[in-house]
From TrEMBL:
<feature type="binding site">
    <location>
        <position position="8"/>
    </location>
    <ligand>
        <name>Mg(2+)</name>
    </ligand>
</feature>
<feature type="binding site">
    <location>
        <position position="179"/>
    </location>
    <ligand>
        <name>Mg(2+)</name>
    </ligand>
</feature>
<feature type="binding site">
    <location>
        <position position="10"/>
    </location>
    <ligand>
        <name>Mg(2+)</name>
    </ligand>
</feature>
<protein>
    <submittedName>
        <fullName>PHOP2 phosphatase</fullName>
    </submittedName>
</protein>
<dbReference type="InterPro" id="IPR006384">
    <property type="entry name" value="HAD_hydro_PyrdxlP_Pase-like"/>
</dbReference>
<dbReference type="InterPro" id="IPR016965">
    <property type="entry name" value="Pase_PHOSPHO-typ"/>
</dbReference>
<feature type="binding site">
    <location>
        <position position="19"/>
    </location>
    <ligand>
        <name>substrate</name>
    </ligand>
</feature>
<comment type="similarity">
    <text>Belongs to the HAD-like hydrolase superfamily. PHOSPHO family.</text>
</comment>
<keyword id="KW-0378">Hydrolase</keyword>
<keyword id="KW-0460">Magnesium</keyword>
<dbReference type="InterPro" id="IPR023214">
    <property type="entry name" value="HAD_sf"/>
</dbReference>
<dbReference type="InterPro" id="IPR036412">
    <property type="entry name" value="HAD-like_sf"/>
</dbReference>
<feature type="active site" description="Nucleophile">
    <location>
        <position position="8"/>
    </location>
</feature>
<keyword id="KW-0479">Metal-binding</keyword>
<dbReference type="Pfam" id="PF06888">
    <property type="entry name" value="Put_Phosphatase"/>
</dbReference>
<dbReference type="GO" id="GO:0046872">
    <property type="term" value="F:metal ion binding"/>
</dbReference>
<dbReference type="GO" id="GO:0016791">
    <property type="term" value="F:phosphatase activity"/>
</dbReference>
Amino acid sequence: MKFLLVFDFDHTIIDENSDTWIVKCAPERKLPNELRNSYQPGHWTEYMGRVFVYLGDNGVKEDDMKRTMTTIPFTAGMIDLLGFIGENKELFDCIIVSDSNTVFIDWILKAADFRKVFDEVFTNPAAFSSTGYLTVQHFHAHHCAKCPINLCKRKVLKEFLDKQLERGVSYTQIVYIGDGGNDLCPVMFLKKNDIAMPRQGYTLEKKISQLAQSLSPVQCSVLAWSSAIDIMSYLKLLIKE
């Protein structure tokens, strides 16, 4: 009996968007209008690349960024939830699928000593160049019309499950915890026995209820959460069964 927990990162594990939080490092803690207005829908990663160039041009160093990023608050109850998962790792495999980047997620998880809770992190690869600028790349290429150009979370989840099956690992239930519009695609991949846990009042919850109203509901069960304590209560029931 093993359960797979799939987490989004921004507004799910942390209570903010890591990509917009980094703007606190910019001069006067804001970006020039022409940079802000250069974002094109579906091309967030390219936009963040330009933001990182701007920060580098303005002398923002790796240490400044790291200091700023590790002040992001975790979502209410999340520290307790991750502690609980860490204590029950024999029952839970746990992955992150996020449109953030490897550098930000590593900094935040390591600072809070939660890196070992997660078996794998799937996110856009980032690194500092020899000149000290942060660079970010697309996670992968895909053919899904619903998802941003750099990341289809359904494809990530499907490939992970296929790889686990090859290793002889299958899951009693998948629990998908997220908040955003790009979490809908993987949620629609979940089966009847799985559960989607959208954050209350966020885009994913709204999109799931729109589908139900248009009589094409998702196959899986749905349980909204406002604090990660709600998620922990569900997991405690799950392992008692």
